[in-house]
């Protein structure tokens, strides 16, 4: 069964991206997970695609 979870708020700086990313990582432990970044800044996309500096 497919389930959808939306994290939204009109105000900026409320932690939507942080909560969404942490929730996606947590849920991915239990099965396939898709995070859709609809913010123009693309911060969630950047978090998962940037190279990790050692």
Structural class: mainly alpha
Overall pLDDT:
88
- Give the tally of β-strands: 0
The N- and C-terminal alpha carbons lie at a distance of 39 Å
Strand content: under 5%
Task: Give the C-alpha Rg.
Answer: 12 Å
Domain AAA: 3-49
Protein name: AAA domain-containing protein
InterPro entries: AAA_dom, P-loop_NTPase
Organism: Enterococcus cecorum DSM 20682 = ATCC 43198
Walk me through this protein's architecture.
With 54 residues, the protein is mainly α. It is built from two helices and no strands. It has helices at 16-28, 43-49.
Topology:
Elements: H1 16-28, H2 43-49
Protein name: AAA domain-containing protein
InterPro entries: AAA_dom, P-loop_NTPase
Pfam families: AAA_31
């Amino acid at each position: 069964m497919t389930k959808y979870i939306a994290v939204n708020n009109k105000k900026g700086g409320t932690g939507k991206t942080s909560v969404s990313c942490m929730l996606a990582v947590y849920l991915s432990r239990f099965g396939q997970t898709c995070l859709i970044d609809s913010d123009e800044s693309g911060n969630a996309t950047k978090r998962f695609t940037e190279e990790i500096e050692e």
